[in-house]
């Protein structure tokens, strides 16, 4: 899937939170929203990119995300690691795990995830 602009990400966040929405509902939920026609155009672009699909309900389109928020996050993170960290998960994690930035509980959970990954769980 293609990357998203800031506005497209905002729209996707609204659709993930609501499950589905019309262009008008997206506009109402968006802070500093652009015009209704701009929202419709962005939804059309998101559909062309494969992020949303629509169904017709009377005389309006109802949009919903194509994939789950979890899958979308994983795909976005994979793209980010690929482009900014040359595909290195280690570099990406190292950039996030700076001394004093994480709480002990967060570090413990990360250590547990690493242990489970080592064991192949």
Question: Can you describe what's shown?
Answer:
This protein has 121 residues and is mainly alpha-helical. It folds into two domains: 6-65, Arc Repressor Mutant, subunit A, CATH 1.10.10; 95-121, no CATH class. Helix content is 60%, strand content 10%. The chain has a two-stranded antiparallel sheet with strand order 1-2. Strand 1 (52-57) and strand 2 form a beta hairpin. Helix 2 packs across helix 3. The two termini are 28 Å apart.
Short description:
It contains six helices and two strands. The protein is mainly α. The chain has two domains: 6-65, Winged helix-like DNA-binding domain superfamily/Winged helix DNA-binding domain (Arc Repressor Mutant, subunit A); 95-121, no CATH class.
> What is the β-strand count?
2
Sheet with the most strands? 2 strands, antiparallel
CA-CA gap between termini = 28 Å
Mean pLDDT: 91
For CATH, the homologous superfamily of the largest domain is named as Winged helix-like DNA-binding domain superfamily/Winged helix DNA-binding domain
> What is the number of helical segments per DSSP (H or I, 4+ residues)?
6
Order of helices and strands: HHHEEHHH
As a percent range, the share of helical residues equals 55-70%
CATH architecture of the largest domain: Orthogonal Bundle
The radius of gyration over CA amounts to 18 Å
CATH C-level name of the largest domain: Mainly Alpha
Strand order of the largest sheet: 1-2
Note poorly predicted spans.
Answer: none
Give the oligomeric state.
single chain
Beta-strand percentage range: 5-15%
How many domain units? 2
């Amino acid at each position: 899937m293609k990357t998203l602009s800031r506005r497209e990400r905002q729209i996707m966040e609204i659709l993930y939170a609501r499950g589905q929405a019309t262009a008008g509902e997206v506009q109402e939920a968006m802070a500093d929203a652009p015009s209704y026609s701009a929202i419709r155009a962005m939804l059309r672009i998101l559909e062309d990119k494969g992020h949303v699909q629509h169904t017709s309900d009377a005389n309006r389109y109802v949009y919903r995300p194509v994939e789950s928020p979890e899958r979308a996050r994983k795909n976005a993170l994979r793209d980010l690691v690929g482009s900014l960290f040359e595909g290195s998960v280690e570099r990406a994690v190292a950039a996030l795990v700076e001394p004093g930035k994480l709480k002990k509980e967060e570090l413990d959970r990360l250590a547990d995830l690493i242990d489970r990954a080592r064991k192949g769980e």
